[in-house]
Write a structure and sequence with these properties.
Two copies of one chain form a homodimer.
Chain A lengths: L2 H12 L3 E3 L11 E3 L1 H20 L4 E2 L5 E3 H7 L1 H4 L1 E6 L6 E3 H8 L10 H10 L16 E5 L3 E3 L7 E4 L4 H5 L2 H7 L6 E10 L14 E11 L15 E5 L1 H4 L7 E4 H6 L6 H17 L6 E5 L12 E8 L2 E12 L1 H10 L5 E15 L4 H8 L3 H14 L8 E6 L2 E6 L6 E12 L2 E8 H12 E6 L2 E6 L10 E5 L6 H14 L4 E3 L5 H11 L3 E5 L1 H6 L1 E6 L5 E5 H12 L9
Parallel strand pairs in A: 3-10, 12-14, 24-25, 24-26
Antiparallel strand pairs in A: 1-2, 4-9, 5-6, 5-7, 8-9, 10-11, 11-21, 12-13, 14-15, 15-16, 16-21, 17-20, 18-19, 22-23, 26-27, 27-28
Chain lengths: 579, 579
């Protein structure tokens, strides 16, 4: 673990941000609990996400269950394809990612794409051993391991269920209902903030690779033919990009350009993705991601999910590594088509034309009195084949005869016996299966990033100080209120001040234990932007000391202006220097 | 299903409150999805809960994982005891609650408490048949079915995990960490809002009995010896109570009294529970539970959980039945003691005395030179037994000889050889395992109740109207903004009005489709308390029409006073009559 990672893990546990769950029982790798500070910061982050990506975009929100029936994942492809390759040590019983073992020991990349037996051979060829106990792994079977957590719904095993590996499927399966709420008008977006579960082989790096995590996903359903985003509000937002072409170039580097330029120059191909890269950049900044440690990286061809045509990841630098914190993908119509196919339900939107269109529709009306005697039992099939051919390839009917193939046998029919004609038909609209643009945010990774990027150290009064420079909107506590001492009525007055600030909607912590300096340090470590001290002067002139976390600057403010002053400081309308 | 239940299910699906999940695949019983309106209402309800039971009480919040390792549930007792009795039909394969079948067919109660073979005999004796297909169930085995959803953590089955059946355990297992955050001071409270899962045999009644649900639980850790709540803020709150004594009395009825009276007369035995009954009553009223359809019912002796000494349920009347929506229990020190026992960790709080206490501590210092030769290999055990005896029963050492028993054998030792003495020891404090008071709210049931109790029907302009009389704080949308028509600049002006209201923090829906009357009905059905119409007069005099949901009263308000007017209406500081 990096130095930053260690400092963060220690602070996160000690101050109540996050820590491994159920550690009194040794815990289970990959499960974390958010303590009081972390739960609060996480909620602030989710509220900020909802504000930006649901309310301000005019999208809907949904909340579906975590346990879903097997049919959903048969259709989505997760049941068959959501696997990791594993090899189990015959000695210690620990399972390892087989592809990672090979990649670590060789120059090979994307070993995941190789057949299992080849990977098994590579393990033998390179004499690979168990990283845990050193036992040789040659000859041990390499197997696919499905990453979904499986369970049974109801008694017995007749009704398997799975913990959803992404919140997205809970939106896709309800599309036929959701389009009703959108009154059958594209585009519309549906968001969900909720848990997702992946039974990782090797959970690691604190909140970065866990088995249970929170996603904030938005599925934006658009008409691929006619809808396009309004880029105006984001076109001047500057992006740090790491396109595929730069990654494969030996001298490749990050490039900086505006959203408008990225679209114009074709660096970002999909305008919807470009729109969300712009929106998200500003939002990441708002929640406290350090823009010096941030980039958008395009997926390379081999990395793309089977359904995706373009994908960019927002990445944050954490302890020296670039870590994905959000994915922006174009899932095309893959999921909706799959669910339509598997369920037989309508996952399209009927798009009304402004005016009915007259289209030419080739049809046949085969003379069965001729086909029957001529072809016997095959006559019906031949009639169907003629109908299909007329739709797909009407030119075939231009000559005197037309030939259809059935099970490799050719049947020739005189065109005059097919009743071929082209009719003019009025169509009022068409069924469109929407394209899906998906910004998918990892909430736990964002919490981790925001805390990591806020972790600062400086020196105050000759002592080293650790503080979290969290944006006020993210901070678990907005104001710490302290009585200088808990006597002479200072406690009572401080309680009143705290109550007033709570009434004004602020998250307030009251603390009367220990020296003022220690209380400041405690609040600094949890990122509280402002502290208010009630002292003997308060009883005289009704003013209090306001102290700012990052600068440690202090000023006196009249109690009756306190709430307003703090709100102005929080909103950046004022700094302590001019207070 | 009741008439109310049917109307509600229809409205809930059509308008996007809640509906059975994954219905395109036939779904899985007991899993529900909250649509856009329901997700929003549920969030409002959770925020109101947090405001009342976390922020205003000064408690902490935590967010733990849904999947927890087996050791947690071994300790909590869920692995062994969280069972339902089932019998499977040999013909159709459907499983049924065996105890319910017997209870439905006989006058017996609490059949759950009988041994399995007796229940099996009762099924045979009463010729009970499968409710699904009519096949005789005589002779079919009655078995215990554990209600936890089981899964495996990591590859293989060596690390079983379970979906938590209550959020509470996620708090209890972290107690050693949480008490640090509380600086080892009792009392303190820790809350969690999150999913819980129970693999019910027969999920039913919409959101009432589901397999995946949201709980809002508060675990209030108190010192059973010295802590007591401040009843002052709630003592005058009036409660409708249905105590155990009234339930077992043939003429029993609801009784009404204040919290203060209930405590004084001993109707509610536990003051902490009384405190929360008072706080919750006011809160239920605030979120829209109809107080004419509400009561607190005390658990009867047989109903109490094995760990609970007193328990009251908040119950709402729904479709003719009384349904539990919240439980208020005294879990004593059961869970913390169990976890301490199973994990070997410290689940107590060290309570410092104001002044050190001098206590007499009887001890022994056995003369091994005597015990060894006399008792051989048993000498060590005898020494331990003497030590235990001295602590528990120091009077035994008053004579010349003392006798200890080991495996039914008695060993007699002269007291002078035991080194018995009584020392005076200074103790600075003691380890206290807190008592746990638990208000446990079912969020889904509350959502259902709030919508059911808000469902109203009246007649407007000669037409029947359905509306939800939700409190503004709960309503998914606060204001609907409509342009009279989408032309002549009315749409643009209405968009501006909507944007201003959003800026003021309100949940706004913009709707320009269909006649104004239809738009009102749509908002009425989702419980939007206010609608604002922009018409031609708006362009002249900059006023809009504000219309109130319940009364359908309308008034004109200047646009620049709109936000303030709506806030006053929402907060009840003004009604439309004096607008």
């Amino acid at each position: 673990m990096s130095e930053e990672g260690k400092r963060l893990a220690e602070l996160a546990k000690r101050r109540g941000f996050f820590f491994p769950s159920a550690s009194v029982y040794g815990g289970a790798a990959g499960f974390y609990t958010y303590g009081p500070q972390g739960a609060s910061l996480k909620r602030n982050l989710e509220d900020a996400w909802r504000d930006r990506f649901v309310f301000r975009e005019g999208h809907m929100e949904l909340e579906g269950p975590d346990v879903m029936p097997e049919a959903v994942f048969e259709a989505s492809g997760h049941l068959d394809g959501f696997d990791d390759m594993i090899v189990e040590c015959p000695e210690c019983g620990e399972s390892h990612r087989a592809d990672h073992l090979v990649e670590d020991a060789t120059a090979l990349e994307e070993v995941e794409a190789l057949p299992l037996d080849e990977v098994q051979d590579l393990i033998a060829d390179h004499d690979l051993t168990c990283p845990n106990c050193g036992t040789a792994l040659a000859g041990e079977p390499v197997e696919q391991f499905n990453l979904m957590f499986a369970t049974n719904i109801g008694p017995g095993s007749s009704s398997p269920g799975y913990l959803r590996p992404e919140t997205a499927q809970g939106i896709f399966v309800e599309f036929p209902q959701l389009k009703e709420y959108a009154r059958n008008q594209l585009p519309f977006g549906v968001a969900q903030i909720g848990k997702a579960y992946r039974n990782e082989i090797s959970p690691r790096k604190s909140l970065i690779r866990v088995r249970e995590f929170t996603q904030a996903e938005l599925e934006h359903f658009v008409d691929p033919e006619t809808d396009s985003p309004d880029l105006a509000p984001v076109e001047d937002v500057e992006l740090t990009l790491y396109p595929a072409s730069e990654q494969t170039d030996d001298d490749g580097e990050h490039v900086t350009m505006t959203v408008g330029e990225a679209v114009e120059r074709g660096v970002v191909g999909n305008e919807w993705i470009a729109y969300y890269l712009g929106r998200a950049k500003t939002w990441f900044e708002r929640i406290g991601v350090d823009m010096e440690r941030f980039r958008y990286r395009q997926h390379l061809g081999g990395e793309l999910a089977h359904y995706a045509s373009e994908c960019w990841d927002a990445e944050a630098e954490l302890g020296g590594d670039w870590v994905e914190i959000t994915g922006f993908g174009d899932r095309a119509d893959y999921d909706l088509k799959k669910h339509a196919e598997h369920s037989g339900e309508d996952f399209s939107v009927f798009k009304q034309y402004d005016e009915p269109k007259v289209v030419e529709k080739p049809t046949v009306d085969p003379e069965m009195g001729y086909l029957g005697p001529e072809f016997g039992g095959t006559a019906g099939e031949i009639a169907d084949a003629l109908e299909t051919l007329a739709e797909k390839n009407p030119q075939s009917f231009e000559g005197d005869e037309v030939t259809v193939e059935l099970d490799d046998e050719a049947f020739t029919v005189p065109v005059e016996k097919t009743g071929f004609s082209v009719e003019e038909v009025k169509e009022t609209g068409e069924h469109v299966t929407p394209q899906v643009i998906e910004p998918s945010f990892g909430v736990g990774r964002l919490v981790y990033t925001v805390v990591a990027h806020a972790l600062e150290r400086d020196e105050v009064d000759g002592e080293e100080r650790t503080y979290l420079s969290l944006p006020p909107e993210m901070a678990p506590t907005t104001v710490g209120v302290f009585p200088l001492m808990d006597k002479d009525g200072l406690g009572e007055r401080a309680h009143e001040v705290a109550a007033d600030l709570r009434e004004a909607g602020m998250a307030v912590t009251y603390d009367d234990s220990g020296a003022i300096g220690r209380r400041y340090r405690r609040q600094d470590e949890i990122g509280t932007p402002y502290c208010v001290t009630v002292d003997y002067d308060t009883l005289e002139d009704d003013t209090v000391t306001v102290r700012e976390r990052d600068t440690t600057a202090q000023t006196r403010v009249p109690v009756d202006e306190l709430s307003e002053t703090l709100q102005e400081l929080r909103d950046g309308d004022r700094s302590l220097d001019d207070a």
